[in-house]
């Protein structure tokens, strides 16, 4: 197709564009790029930011008590669930559930498996009776005054540790993490919440060589019944196969007590 035919058809590529057209195009792109940079400029002055920080600290000192801060058994103190609930109330946050999942591990006595075995549909609104092993919550948290919103996701599973009431504790822990993280992000605090990895967290307690030898000796002289009991216990408190040696110091004494014969036994 000849150049005249191309122009009559209204088709013109950049290859045929004049220098003036290209210069104008690049100028527009440069202006758009500069406009994008404006988005990241501060929306308040330094003095206003200092005043807001003082206001926040005064409010925190007024509503947060020592009972609202977790200090025991952690490398660095962090706000508990009660602290984030107070922040949410005082600063005007509301939340809604986007999605949630609660998972079970079905055992041989599971009603759902029994129904399936006999080809009968299991009632959708009935509990199968198996224990909860993980939960996930996704929440949208909104600052009522400004309309700013953020998403918080919280996950909890039995692999983390032993839960006294896992059917209740696991879902509630996941919900608390989702809500706390969303509020923390919206407030720009950057503080860890329960179950969140901490950059200052100490490494997990791996067994020493002497502890491994003690464990292997106890395992070697234990009965099949004792070994089965230990396997069940380790699975219950969240250890995957072969994981106990890597982080099991917390439960070592209990495991040895299960494997070794009682004092005075023949």
Task: Report what the structure shows.
The chain has 266 residues and is of the alpha+beta class. The protein has 2 domains: 47-187, Enolase-like, domain 1 (2-Layer Sandwich); 209-259, no CATH class. The protein has 10 helices and 5 strands, in the order αααββαβαββααααα. The longest helix is centred in the middle third of the chain and has 22 residues, at 166-187. The model is unreliable at 5-16 and 198-203 (pLDDT under 50).
Summary tags:
266 residues, alpha+beta, Enolase-like, domain 1, 2 domains, three-stranded antiparallel beta sheet, two-stranded antiparallel ribbon, extended
What's the topology here?
Elements: H1 3-8, H2 19-38, H3 46-63, E1 69-70, E2 78-79, H4 81-91, E3 93-104, H5 111-117, E4 132-143, E5 149-157, H6 166-187, H7 209-221, H8 224-236, H9 244-247, H10 249-259
Helix pairs in contact: 4-6, 7-10
State the share of residues found in helices, binned by percent. Answer: 40-55%
Our estimate of the beta-strand percent is: 5-15%
For the record, the CATH architecture of the largest domain stands as: 2-Layer Sandwich
- CATH topology group of the largest domain: Enolase-like, domain 1
Question: Secondary-structure element order, as H and E?
Answer: HHHEEHEHEEHHHHH
The biggest beta sheet is recorded as: 3 strands, antiparallel
- The whole-angstrom Rg is 30 Å
The overall strand count is 5
Provide mean pLDDT, rounded. Answer: 77
Provide a short characterization of the protein structure:
This protein has 266 residues and is of the alpha+beta class. It has ten helices and five strands; from the N terminus they run αααββαβαββααααα. The strands form two sheets. A three-stranded antiparallel beta sheet has the order 3-4-5. Strands 1-2 form a two-stranded antiparallel sheet.
């Amino acid at each position: 197709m000849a150049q005249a035919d191309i122009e009559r058809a209204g088709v013109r590529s950049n290859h045929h564009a004049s220098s003036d057209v290209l210069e104008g195009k690049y100028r527009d792109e440069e202006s758009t790029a500069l406009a994008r940079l404006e988005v990241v400029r501060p929306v308040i002055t330094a003095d206003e930011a200092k005043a807001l920080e003082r206001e926040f600290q005064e409010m925190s000192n007024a509503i947060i008590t020592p009972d609202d801060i977790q200090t025991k058994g952690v490398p660095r103190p962090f706000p508990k669930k009660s602290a984030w609930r107070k922040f949410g109330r005082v600063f005007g946050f509301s939340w809604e559930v986007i999605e949630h999942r609660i998972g079970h591990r079905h055992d041989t006595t599971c009603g759902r498996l029994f129904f399936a075995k006999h080809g009968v549909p299991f009632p959708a609104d009935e509990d199968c009776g198996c224990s909860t092993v993980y939960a996930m919550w996704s929440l949208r948290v909104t600052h009522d005054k400004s309309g700013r919103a953020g998403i918080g996701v919280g996950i909890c599973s039995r692999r983390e540790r032993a839960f006294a009431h896992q059917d209740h504790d696991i879902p509630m822990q996941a919900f608390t993490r989702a809500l706390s993280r969303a509020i923390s992000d919206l407030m720009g605090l950057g503080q860890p919440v329960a179950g969140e990895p901490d950059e200052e967290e100490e490494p997990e307690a791996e067994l020493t060589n002497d502890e491994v030898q003690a464990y292997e000796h106890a395992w070697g002289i234990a009965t099949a019944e004792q070994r089965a009991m230990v396997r069940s216990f380790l699975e219950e408190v969240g250890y995957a196969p072969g994981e106990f040696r890597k982080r099991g110091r917390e439960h070592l004494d209990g495991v040895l007590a299960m494997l070794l014969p009682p004092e005075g036994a023949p």
